[in-house]
Amino acid sequence: MAKFKVKKKSTLVDMTAMTDVSFLLLTFFILTATARQPEPLPVDTPASTVQMKVPDTNIGIITVGGDGKLFFGVGGQQIRINMLNRISEKYNLSFTEDEKQRFALIEGFGVPVGGLKQLINMDNSERMSSGIQNSGIPADSVDNQLKEWILAARYATKEVNDAEMRVAIKGDAKESYPSIKKVIDILQDQKINKFSLLTNLRSEDY
Amino acid sequence: MAADVEVKDDGKGGKVRSKKQAGRVDLTAMVDLAFLLITFFMLTTSLSKPHAMDVAMPDKNQENKEDLLELADNRTMTILLGSDNKIEYYMGLLDSPLEGPTVTDYGKDGIRPVLLEQLKRVPQVTGDPDKGLIVVIRPSDKSNYRNLVDILDEMKIVDAKQYMIGDIGTAEIELLTREGIYN
């Protein structure tokens, strides 16, 4: 009788190619992931079921938090420099070329125009530390600096990218309605009747 | 020369070879880890981005204030946002409401069934599918930003075509105070 011997197959699979591919993908995702910028004013945005993502370009974000404090930030470094030029003209301030370059890297800020130079010359960690930007941008009827910033940002976006700037309001969920209303009124005074509210994705069943 | 060759020959002939190691390393754990990280980065890049809810406000129309659109009573529903996450709504005019005013909550057990019912009923009453419900949202000073986003989200969920955000009047604030949701 011939003996049949089932040849035992090796369970080892060559994983080299798989490792190569997976690490390639991993590298890709690590590189494309933008590091989350520290925010000067952390806010907890409310949740909604809206699926539309915020665009990255041509957008100005007004942050409202901490009892009506207002922060402003606009995307794009060229736009920021252009915006700063307009503001410095308006308020008779002068910034050196180095200061402009530094300003271009600031994502968002919340100081009156007078304190801007000091803010620019701080380093990043100092800028984000508490107590530095605790006044926000003034937006009362006597001295409406937020209005000027938005206006400058809109002009700058138009000039640099030839596009309309979208305005988004990023408010804290617990912020009272009047402080949001104040921002909306500023926008409407500039005939911006369409804007976005930034929200998180609602996870629970609603 | 000759000695060199001899030495070489000697080395080959001796077969003192070190045992060849297997070229395979078990990569399973490494692949597991890599895929775990890929999943993590994929999710964080797409999920961390905030979402934008578009809002269109009615134009303030400061030039000609008289040029305002008259709205039919039976089509308008006014939603007042009070404190403590409560809503009060009524149909038609405040002085002679067709329905309500009723206090309710946000979400699927509160305002949503009311909105869905009215959205179905109003076109039947007006007899024109284009003349649907118009929702007027009036946030009071005691409501917060979350309430505003919630009610706008509700409009998206029930697919209300016409809605707007307006200012609250003193009579309506009095109504909210009477119901105890203005504190």
Could you write a compact summary of the structure shown?
Chain A is α/β, with parallel strands linked by helices and 206 residues long. Chain A is 38% helix and 14% strand.
Plain-language structure description:
The complex is a heterodimer of chains A (206) and B (183). By secondary structure, chain A is α/β, with parallel strands linked by helices. Chain A has one domain. Chain A is 38% helix and 14% strand. Chain A contains seven helices and five strands; from the N terminus they run H-E-E-E-H-H-H-H-H-E-H-E. Chain A has a five-stranded mixed sheet with strand order 1-5-4-2-3, with helices on one face. The model of chain A has no long low-confidence stretch (mean pLDDT 80). The termini of chain B are far apart. Chain B has a domain at 73-179: Nucleotidyltransferase, domain 5 (2-Layer Sandwich), CATH 3.30.420. Chain B is built from five helices and six strands. In chain B, helix 4 links the parallel strand 5 and strand 6 (162-165). Helices cover 39% and strands 21% of the residues of chain B. Chain B is of the alpha/beta class. In chain B, 25% of the residues are buried. The chains are: A alpha/beta (206), B alpha/beta (183). Chains A and B meet through helix 1, strand 1, strand 4, helix 7 and strand 5 of A and helix 2, strand 1 and helix 4 of B.
